[in-house]
Specification:
Strand content: 15-25%
Oligomer: single chain
Helix content: 25-40%
Largest sheet: 7 strands, antiparallel
Number of helices: 7
Distance between the termini: 28 Å
Amino acid sequence: MVTALTLALWTGTASAKHLSFLTPTITGSHSLLIAAKTDPAMIEGELVEAPWGFIDFCRRLPGECASSVRAAQKVRLSAKRAAELSVVQMRVNRQVSYTTDRYNYGRDEFWTYPHARGDCEDYALEKRRRLIAMGWPRSALLLTAARMENGQKHLVLVAITDKGDFVLDNSNGAPRSWKAMKYQWLARQSRFKESDWVALNPSKLN
């Protein structure tokens, strides 16, 4: 059940344009807000080797991997920012058709921005690009590697906020707290240098 408080929190400062896109996903938005009150952030460990597909992506587009910051950034999860997460999640998932790299490019691993078709890495890259264009800091939008319940490796975008870390996944309709995902979290981009990757320490995640 969606409460009046939930609606006020999500729509209090969002524009009519935001609201028109949020209507189909308001139930998922409700779950996000409940999780945001209680869930902690992921705990980062030591530096690890970046995925090969990411290294290749950075070689081709070095400007997409060059930023660094001295202090980790968290975005205040205002109604406007929450709306942006939902809009980008919904739009990209609808506009991009899942297709393997083998089918698209004739190779097993090729990270790039999608043109109507792409796999999980491409969804995550496109969501990151759109949120950066909306004013989100790059260091608060982290490509994150995980292992799904079926053992398959997967990549998602994680947004770092003052209410916790939220996952934008091509397998879900709405942004969700990382704690609500039945994934084994492996590694993600560093909050301080986007070309670096760090392990996610399983012993400290709960």
